[in-house]
Amino acid sequence: MLTLGIETSCDETGLSLVDNGQVIAETLASQIEIHSVFGGVVPELASREHLKVLPQLFEILLERSKCSPKDIEVIAVTRGPGLLASLLIGLGFAKGLALSLGKNLIGIDHLLAHLLVTDLEQNLEFPCLGLLVSGGHTHLYLIKSFFEFKLLGKTLDDAIGEAFDKVAKMLNLPYPGGVFIDKLAREGKVDKKMFPRPYIDNTNLDFSFSGIKTAVANYLAMHPELIFPRAEENAILLANQEVKDMCASLVYALVESLKIKIRRALKLAKVKGLVVAGGVACNSVLRQELRILCEENNLKCWIPSPKLCTDNGIMIAYLGEIFAKAGFKHDLSLDAIPRGRTIPWDFKKRT
To answer: What value, to the nearest 5°, has the Cα angle with vertex 309 and ends 289 and 288?
Structure first.
């Protein structure tokens, strides 16, 4: 079942064709250079760039796959969560194709697609816990099947990726800063008392990372010499040991807070393993520590390759095909769901 996946939730435009669980072709356009000037994503610029490159990427995808539009059987598109204007660009493109080609349309939850595309590389086993860690979200799910999910906890304010990026901005590291913090942390020594493990003095499974920003800001106010004079790509080469130790201690505090909540969740549900996905799942310390946690609890740990952790069209096409084979679809009334709103389960069953 040749399925087209379209991803435009934030600042990357991704398209892919998947057929029976196999990636036929993919294209991806990043907007990092555009937004790096501003130190973060500018929604209006992001949506304009999606509008500009989406038709071009579709043509490239067809050339690489040696397919024609008529060969496509299902059109899957990210409906949310994300930046509303960006979502609408992808959704409009998908609806136009579905209408002109007479093909089935399926709206996909971007967060669940991140988690479940892991099955493309590693066979997931259900039930499992799902930890989604990205720039805009930190969610913990109980996943019973490809079609059954229960949200156990979510971020109440800043997501873990936002914490990394905002701390990087305080240090005057280049955008996106989470990558630089990870590289610096690898060469640092952890001081477990330097930063608090945020939002753990409770019994719930929610997350909050806004407090870590304040802690870092206070620390840098006392140690202004750690701040780079300007954002440079070779910041890692210029960094002294104190900066590396600070980054290592920051990563430790954030990852430990995740581990505490995961351990709580494991007491509530019997699962076969943990799947971790999202852009922050590229962080080397997080990947290592969560694998160790799973080993300690005799659980399997599934983390996709870094390529599939960031936004891409493959995850949308892969989950779209699974849903289509199960008989799910949407009609042209499908709407976009921005960040902060719950994505409804409003599929229609194919007759």
So the answer is: 10
Which two tokens mark 217? 């800001």
Cα 7 to Cα 89: distance, rounded to the nearest angstrom: 10
Q: What is the CA radius of gyration of the chain?
A: 20
Using CA of residue 207, residue 210, residue 211, residue 217, what is the dihedral sign? positive
Q: Which two tokens stand for residue 272?
A: 């076969």
Residue 284 is predicted with a pLDDT of 94
For residue 21, how many C-alpha atoms fall within 13 Å in the half-sphere facing its CB?
9
HSE, CB side, 13 Å, CA atoms: give it for residue 125.
Answer: 8
User: What phi, psi does 13 have (nearest 5°)?
Assistant: -105, 115
Round to whole Å and give the CA distance between 113 and 194.
Answer: 36
Residue 5 contacts residue 73 (beta carbons within 8 Å): no
Among 91, 75, 87, 117, which Cα is nearest to 277's?
117
Enumerate residues 6+ apart whose C-beta is below 8 A from 126. 143, 144, 145, 272
Contact between 2 and 19 (Cβ < 8 Å) = yes
Round to whole Å and give the CA distance between 341 and 343: 6
Question: CA 280, 286, 288, 290: dihedral to nearest 10 degrees?
Answer: -110
Contacts of 22 (CB under 8 A, 6+ apart): none
SS3 142: strand
CA pair distance 103, 168, nearest whole angstrom = 44
Closest to 112 measured CA to CA, from 159, 153, 80: 80
Mean pLDDT split into 10-residue runs, the chain, 351 residues = 97 97 97 84 94 97 96 97 97 97 97 97 97 94 97 94 92 88 94 94 94 94 90 74 96 97 95 97 96 98 95 98 97 94 89 63
